[in-house]
Amino acid sequence: MRLYLAGPEVFLADAEAVAEAKRAVCVAHGLAGVFPLEPPPVTPEATLPDWRRIYQANEAHIRSCDALVANLTPFRGPSADAGTVYELGFMRALGRPVFGYSHVAARFGARTLAALGPRARRRADGAWEDEEGMAVEEFDRHDNLMLEGGIAASGGCFEVEAVPAGRRWTDLAAFTRCVAAAARLLRGG
Question: Where in the sequence is the signal peptide annotated (predicted)?
């Protein structure tokens, strides 16, 4: 069974080393880990610009997999990487299980308020909002409620392992717990 490994680790200088470590965890649980930078199962159209070929390749990878594990650690702001979020939603729309993890323990609402700083203000009803009058989501989730909702609805799990900033993209503890859960679910146990 194949497991798509979604996350912003593709942007690391040593992305292939991270991919190898993650693939090894998958193999130890009887799964094949598929990293986004691998050659796709379908060749993208050669005439398209790079960004479109990458998109086509990643969707082909996702379609070829049985489940997905997403690194939802906040990336360049208070929320998860937008590409990873798209991939998680795409797999969920295919009706397949999705799993997620974060290496930051702080909840989404608190991280958003910290990012807004003095631009956040209280409404008359006590809710927080930004300078444009948009409410700050506070459902005591690790990211947008749709992400954790989709994970739960698919039978997946969300794992948190707070790690120091220097290991945020390479620590494998929460990832390993997700892979173990995916292996159990995919085997029907």
Answer: none
User: Whole-model pTM above 0.90?
Assistant: yes
- pLDDT level of residue 44 (50, 70, 90 thresholds): confident
| DSSP result, 58-109 | HHHHHHT-SEEEEE----SSSS--HHHHHHHHHHHHTT--EEEEES--S-HH
**Contact in structure between 141 and 83 (CB atoms under 8 Å):** no
Rounded-to-integer distance, Cα 29 and Cα 21, Å: 13
Domains of the chain, start order: 2-104+144-186 (3.40.50.450), 106-141 (no CATH)
What are the φ/ψ torsions at residue 141 (nearest 5 degrees)?
A: -110, 165
- Average pLDDT (73-95) is 98
Whole-number Å distance between alpha carbons of 16 and 51: 20
Alpha carbon 148 to its chain centroid, in Å, reads: 10
